[in-house]
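Fold it.
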Amino acid sequence: QAPPSTPRFRSSGLGASAVMAPKIYTMLISQPARAVSWACTYEGTVVEEVQIMPGKDTQTEEYRAQNPIGAVPRLVEEDGFVLNESHAIMCYFGDKFKWKLYPEDAKVRARIHQYMNWHHSNTRRITIALFAPVMRPDMPLPKEMCDAYRKEITGSRGILSTIERFLSSSTWLCGERPTIADLSCYCEIGQCLDKYTGLFGINRIDLSVYPKILQWLGECEKLDGYEKSHALLTKMAPGIKSKASKLAAKL
């Protein structure tokens, strides 16, 4: 798919520039892609969002020749610099544009990196166990693995319990101000709320036993860029919820 000739959005924080806006190859139903889009809007960073299809466009020889990681989001800058992985992109932009969501304080950054390293083999499993089986039939996942991940979500020392403990000592995951860690985490958890896909309810996961998480979710939803980054999910949510309910009925 050819990229559009003009940026898909320009946040009000920055004016027009002679330098071409960086391109983000994306699909906003993707949790990592949604986090990058949200962060850019929050910070007023001008980007051109090029919508492509994960699992199809990302597997072409042309796409993989740029970077071996065949996934979204992908950053491509005017000088040819290419970067995959949402956390890498947000940290790079945070450094380059001095994002408030990526403070220069070394200890805060250490906590951000701590969460992000943990995220990949923990919070991300919420999507793998609940969302991927519904929306990514091109990624067949062993039932035994998904069942094990579901148990990890709500275990006494599991994913949601750990996040609840993170939030018991501070308002946000990494301190008293929101960071890119919060946006990344929300995009995995928030999508499962009843107002979107209802995947927690369908899978009998009760968030009411995690009051800190519920409070934090509400605070995240007040951040600039939330509604724009979640517009596609909002549009697709009824269909996803219906598909998920039918799949659950077969189990």
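The longest strand covers residues 23-26.
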